[in-house]
Design brief:
The structure is a homoheptamer of 278-residue chains. By secondary structure, the first copy, chain A, is α+β, with helices and mostly antiparallel strands. Chain A has eight helices and ten strands. At the A-B interface, helix 1 and helix 2 of A face helix 1, helix 3 and helix 4 of B.
């Protein structure tokens, strides 16, 4: 009934000093399927949940390699994420061509953030609807950044974004103190456990998640499905699932409250498919 | 009565993080006549339903050849589809002229998707209103992609889009496990069966469908009507039709619910003709 | 009372995936005076109804020559049609100057369609309000195309557009099977009969119609009024008119229902004159 | 109460396929003081009614010479008309400079019409608010065209535009069959009689009309006031006036109904002065 | 209550063919302090009323010299008038530099009018809010033009614009027949009498008016205050004032009705100061 | 309740010929802290009231030097004033570089006014929200101008702008006849007395005002605080304050009525701080 | 219910001469976490409160080094602040490259302010949503400036901005008289005490604040966490906290009233996280 006159134009401030269109774009990140990242001193692991439109299709690719030392996992509008990850790739190539050394991670992250900020200050554009977890390794060590539609970025020890990411965040917060000195294996294990937390009782298999790793002496690589399944089996993660799901039972309610500050008046979302992201 | 203030401008986010204008453009794909695609390791088959304005006209062309190794079937706004398919053709020519080798399929699909993404982030444009099933064959094998108005793309084993495509999808899901090792003939047979599923009791004849095939040692070609009729007759597809239509009887209801998340308040569509697509 | 918020901007999709502004532009074609086209293997005939503002003026020209092998008849906004037909003329000249051969008909039709499509995807333009029947003859034979404001085009054996064209279409559908092998004379006869169907009891004379013909060994020409009257007399078309008009008596009602999906709330059209087209 | 949402933007189609802004610009022509034109095989005569703001001013110039062989009379927005007539002048000069021959009349008329059409298809412009009667003489004979704000043009034997032009049109329709072979003198006489019809009982004098003539061997010239008065006296036109005015008595009522399809809700026009045209 | 939807955008036509924004700009001329002009065969006199913001300031300059043979008096938005008068000055300089002869008056007036017309046909501009009385002398004699915000211009024997100009116009109409052969002195006398008519009982002194003269053998000059006072005294104009003011008593009422076709709903104008013009 | 539809766009005229957005920008000048100027034949003095955000900050600079012979005091939006004063500085430098002589004051004032006028005629800009008192000395003597957001400028003997400037204007009007032949000292004294009038009972000290002087043989300089305090003490201005404040008691009411023609419906201004100007 | 029509567009003035969009952007500064600055004759200290999204992330960086002699602390939209601080860095580099001397602080501050002013005068941009405390040292001594979204800047002895900054301002006002001659240590101590005032009972530790110092002979440096903790311990600041929090008990209420002039009608802010700033 009360129409908010400050929330349809990205260049309009609300009386309380907020940019609603930017906040709404951040909601798009929450609607995407979950992505997580965590790092030790030497390694970074990214993982994400794959949702398929149907049995007929492979899943949308949500983890991308930018260079041997940089990779990214996205949540939100996949098309926006793909465009930004290709920008990252081309920046990496240009830099190493010009300077004959790899592009420092922090520098790329700032460039990404500036690209996003511009979209929050022009009336004929819209903020990007995607969050990016950037994993990188350079002379200053292993890094994990989160780039947000607002043009902000943050450095994290571990982080989770996207749908039902709260459960994963809780898991990571409980464990993060050990990550810094964690082995590659343990990072992978924790990544898979964190991903499982977002599944709401669904059984974790290699077909519904993608895992990538980057480390000292190890270029960024997306693990093949067999390797991932072997890890799941080795860690006996899937087996723990059913009780864990029970323990998480109240989580869905919390998740249901999460979708956004206000229900849209538009056509209802189809329950089984996120409209622009899978 | 309640006006949705977030759904008329492609650069406006809704409070829940959705871009309604992009979703509405995806509805245009659902309104187009059906198109399907399926692939084995060596072949890809595209097929679509032809609807004619009247006896006087030939049907609108909805399957296009981009190059010897790439073809596309569209559903939705035909004019948008034609513009995009010509873009594909010209990219193929330019690439083979510059590199003296065929343009890799995945690369063209990404370029197409980026072209679509740009139209979702400029206030003075509109998202394309067409879905494209891209069939291709390159060094990495046979491919089938679906490019969506949102700027997303997906790789599929088999897929169906457009009006009443749900029945075809159900058929393809039941069968898809065998497609990978299927012969060229069986792919064609399944394509025709899938197309028949979308016809709601109408008899399948070569005049109401177009079929194209691409495979190892076989450039993309649209089969002539005689060949298609011969296949229909050989597979005895048309004959099975009547009972199949009965089995599908409840499908129309389901189809009737499908048209869109909300009925427009505008002038009613004329029942016998889709306004911009045939 | 219920305002349609999706139908004033050409770049706005409706929730059901329609572009109302494009559909409204297609209504402008229906408001124009009728034009028809039909073809045999060797000839194409175009014809249209001329309406004069008053006794004092000659009628608006609605059939244009683009080149010796291409001509066009329009219905709808005459100014838009003139601008497009001049575009056709200049494309023909440029092509034959560059390649020393006539521009293939299908190629010109696609260029025309693309020009129209662009106007459906820019917020500061409007779709053209004119339909074009393009007659052409090239190495692949005689052609008849219909170019629509939506950016679509269709190939036809015979077609009629504009005000009260339904009666002509019915006539053409009854006869079209014979057109393919029809003689030049018979095509002209059928064209005049079809035109007469759109007149609602008015007597057909050479002063209220224009007829053009294009064929093997015969450059596109608009027949002079005397020749047309001679044909009318020879075929005794005008004489059959009165009873035909009676038989068509219910047609006006049908025609009255035709004008558009919704009555405008604006000032009423003056009954005796279509505002921008005669 | 019911607001027409389709009539404020020149690039918005109404549901019935009309462009209201173009039609409203055509209303501006009807509000201007009357202009008439008529032609024989060898001569064209233009005439218009002059209205003065006050005794203090000369009247606005409404007949312009474009070249020795082309002249124009306008009705509607005088400023728009002046800009367009200067465009005509400059096109004539450029053509004769380049080709050393006079610009064909029909060609100039098409260029004018295209200039007007562009203003009906750009959201940041407005259609011209002026009608132009173009008189010309070239190798193909004497011509009279009417160029309309819609971008249309028409060739006429005789025509009248502007305020109360219906009475002049009626006069011209009664007489036009003789115009073709009329002498220069008779054309002038009919022009003055036609102008008198638009005066609603006012006495015709040389001070309230302008007359121009163009013919074989006679460059376009605007007759001086003395010559015009001599013609009025010679033809005894002014003397017939009073009874004619009586015969025209019902015309004002008809004229009063003429102003436009809908009364504006804006401030009322001041009765004694047309706001932008005199 | 009834909102006029056609009067906020300069490129929107009303249903009756009017451009309200242009008419509203013409209202701004009526709000400015009065300016008058009159001419004989050899001389032109311009005069205007000066209103001061306060005792502390000199009055705004409202008569400008463009060249030795051209001057201008303005009424309305002073800033717009100043910009246009500087344009006139620069055109005069450029012309005499290029052609070594003075710019013909009529030509400058047309250029001015065209500059104003452009502002009535672009959605991102506004019509100028100023009227200009242009006095000039060239080979064709002495001229007085009025340039209006609409892009129109008129040639006058004598004219008055601005606030309460009706009384001055009445005076000029009573006398204008003698102006043509008037002496320089008598023109000045009539100018001062006409100015006095606009004062509503205020005493005419040299401090509240500016007078300029241009004539054969006399470059355009603004008379100094002493000369003006001497004229006032010589003609005994000020002395006649009181009774004249009485005779004008009903005029203020008439003047009060004059301000505009509709009262604005905005904040009331402060009675003692015209907001943008003095 | 009644919404004014003519006052949100700078390019929209109201029916009565007003530009409300320009008038509203003029209100911003009234909201700024007061500035005054006065001149004799040889000197110009500028003074303004300084308001500090808090004890912690120095006050905003509101008097600027443009060149040795030109200075400016501003009231209104400080940021706009700073941008314009830097424009003045750069124009002065460029002129003296090109012509090796100081830029005439009147010429700079016109350039400033034109810069302001442009902002009143473009839909994508806004009028400047600042008034400028320009003090200058050149071959034609000492000058004081007021440049207004409307693009107007005025020459003054003495003037006051900004919050509660009415009291200062009253003081200046009572005294101005003596200014012309005033000594430098007396000008300074009157400047300080005028400033005190705007203080509403607050005690005048050197910390709450800035004073600048320019004269024959004396480049524009802002007096240091010590000098100003010495003047205040010498003239015993501060001591007269308390009774003066009583005499001014009704002034605040008058001042309270002054803020603007209409109260905004927006959030209330915080009483202790003008939002964009201090 | 009453909609403010003047507060959604940065180029629209309110009737009272305010630019609401600029004021709203200033609210964004108030929503950011607190930043403070203070200076002696030789040193400047900046400090800010760090808020972390979660345990998993490091805090957002809010103090930046522009050059050895210039640093900046921000409050408000972090992305805008980062973009502006990088602009500062690049200006410093360019200047010292061109002139081989450090960029004067005041000059950089003016450039920053002009960059902000431009964003308040273009309809397609928005004002920056960030306040900047600029610390600098140059030949004219140590400086502390505050740059505001309005394009204004102020020089301060000490200042605090952002959420709950009022308590810090009160502290600084009580002490500021001693700052000018304060030692480096005492400045640091006062900075930490002022920061503690903004914490509302939270214990001050080095992990929740950042401190930077710049002085004669000491390049701008951000102190490492260990150094900061040592200072906190040395000054026994944290220990005083609990009672101070009690003394501040009413402050939260005051703080709660602070957020803005009007509550937004949009979705409520999540209490534990400022949407675009941490």
């Amino acid at each position: 009934m009360f129409r908010n006159q400050y929330d349809t134009d990205v260049t309009t401030w609300s009386p309380a000093g907020r940019l609603f269109q930017v906040e709404y774009a951040m909601e798009a990140v929450k609607q995407g399927s979950a992505a997580i990242g965590l790092r030790s001193k030497t390694h970074v692991v990214l993982a994400c949940v794959n949702k398929s439109n149907s049995e007929l299709s492979s899943h949308q690719k949500k983890i991308f390699k930018a260079d041997d030392h940089i990779g990214v996992a996205i949540a939100g509008l996949t098309a926006d994420g793909r465009v930004l990850s290709r920008y990252m790739r081309s920046e990496c190539i240009n830099y190493s061509y010009s300077y004959e050394s790899p592009l420092p991670v922090g520098r790329l992250v700032v460039q990404l953030a500036d690209k996003a900020q511009v979209c929050t200050q022009r009336s004929w554009k819209r903020p990007y609807g995607v969050g990016l977890l950037v994993a990188g390794l350079d002379e200053s060590g292993a890094h994990l950044y989160y780039n947000c539609p607002s043009g902000n970025y943050f450095e994290y020890q571990a982080f989770a974004i996207g749908s039902r990411s709260q459960a994963a965040k809780t898991y990571l917060e409980r464990k993060f103190e050990s990550f810094s000195s964690s082995s590659r294996e343990n990072l992978l294990k924790d990544a898979l456990f964190a991903i499982r937390e977002t599944l709401q009782g669904e059984r974790l298999t290699s077909s519904i998640c993608t895992v990538a790793v980057l480390g000292v002496g190890e270029a960024f690589q997306i693990l093949d499905q067999k390797t991932v399944q072997a890890l799941i089996d080795a860690f006996e993660i899937a087996g723990e699932e059913a009780p864990a799901a029970e323990g998480d039972a109240p989580a869905p309610d919390l998740g249901a409250a999460e979708p956004g500050p206000a229900a849209d008046q538009g056509p209802p979302a189809q329950p089984d498919i996120a409209p622009m992201d899978i």
